[in-house]
Amino acid sequence: MNEMELLAQADLRGLRYTETNGQRRVFPSDEAIAALVAFDEPLPDQGLPAEDTLALLDEVGSPATTASNGPRYFGFVIGAALPAAAAAERLISAWDQCASTFDNSPVSATLERVASRWVLDALDLPRDSAVGFGTSATACTLTALAVARRELLARLGWNLDDQGLNGAPEIRVVISELTHITVKKALQVLGFGKHQILQAPVDGQGRIDATLVPPLDERTILCLQAGEVNTGAFDPFEQIIPHAKKAGAWVHVDGAFGLWARASSLVGLTQGIELADSWTTDAHKWLNTPYDCAMTICRNSGALAEAMNSDAAYSSASVDAQKNLTLEFSRRPRGILVWAALRSLGRDGIAELVERHCAQARRIGDGLARAGFEVLNPVILNQVLFRCTTDVQTVAVRTAVQQSGEAWFGGAVWQGRPAMRVSVSSWRTQDADVEALLALLVRIKSATTDVSS
Ligand SMILES: *Cc1c(COP(=O)(O)O)cnc(C)c1O
User: Fold this and answer.
1) How far apart are CA 262 and CA 286, in angstroms?
2) In testing the pocket of ligand 1, which one of 78, 229, 260, 381 has its CB within 8 Å of the most ligand atoms?
3) How many whole angstroms separate alpha carbon 58 and alpha carbon 64?
């Protein structure tokens, strides 16, 4: 089989997979998982035919996928891939560009520049901010926090590039009690210890209580959150950020999915967020691009470019080259997926996507309450947190849903007790899928009630 035939085969298999997405089990069957042993081969001495490799990947691999690209996956905020973005993904995969600089790939540099401009426009953030397209909110938060520390130290007269961290003035970080685990991971990788990290208490909905924020000064990085993973709650930016800025702190916002509320009629939830210094958001979650695609957005573009500088001339860093705005040096032009998604949705389409998911989440919340579940959050965004009367039943219902193959969502621990969490974030999810989820939950709940009583 020649290269063209092989690639055509791959396209065909991919098309078939996508076509049957809605009929797949949402979580693979035990048999499909058991069949994965077929991959457990020794490294072959001689290379094997490419078409065999493709066939094995599809025949054993495809049945063991999670249908998170389908309509009834409600786990985390995973999102499906929009057709325009999925199509762009296929083409750029044929291009195989190294999108570090204009010289390496003129088309990539050009499109990522357009995508940056559109992102700032859609999210209504300062238009001269720099946008680095990285692999994940985790990596982009790590980037932003590295910039924050370097800048705060520079303002204190400490040159991090020359002097390093040993003996540097101590920088503290204030995070929310409910900060996402990946922000903690980024801090840990950067060398912040628990003693330098203070937690701001949250209210019953998971928002930082503005009256209880630890003291802030010019040695503090404050991490706020747009879209808490359980409740979808937003920290009170308008109350906290002006005060933090006046104290000289650097304000970073983790808006992995929630930042997109800003591109919809829910913009009010993000009031004041534009006053921060840096923001992280994913495209692979609510914007529904394929994995892996996220952004670091930094108000001070020079600060980002200097902290991530990989220009050979050390004294200056071009803010136009993605290699100076992300952790990666060699990288694929993932910003093109953002460009394709934004171009196909338009301003109206982004708003419609976000608003539809929030309306569907409200519908789920109302349906669950009517069916006797305890809904634990006011459904302000796309997240619904709920539980049964007893913890045993909560876990039993969640497990039964996951095993059914008809839908999937994850568990959470909320205020010390098990809970269930539904996220609506796939463009494929129709109201009928929401109704199917509700019907499934009602059926499983009454079955587990019978068993436990
Ligand atoms: C998912 C998520 C992250 C991490 O994003 P990745 O792209 O998975 O690294 C960070 N913060 C919040 C609030 C999230 O929901």
Assistant:
1) 12
2) 229
3) 10
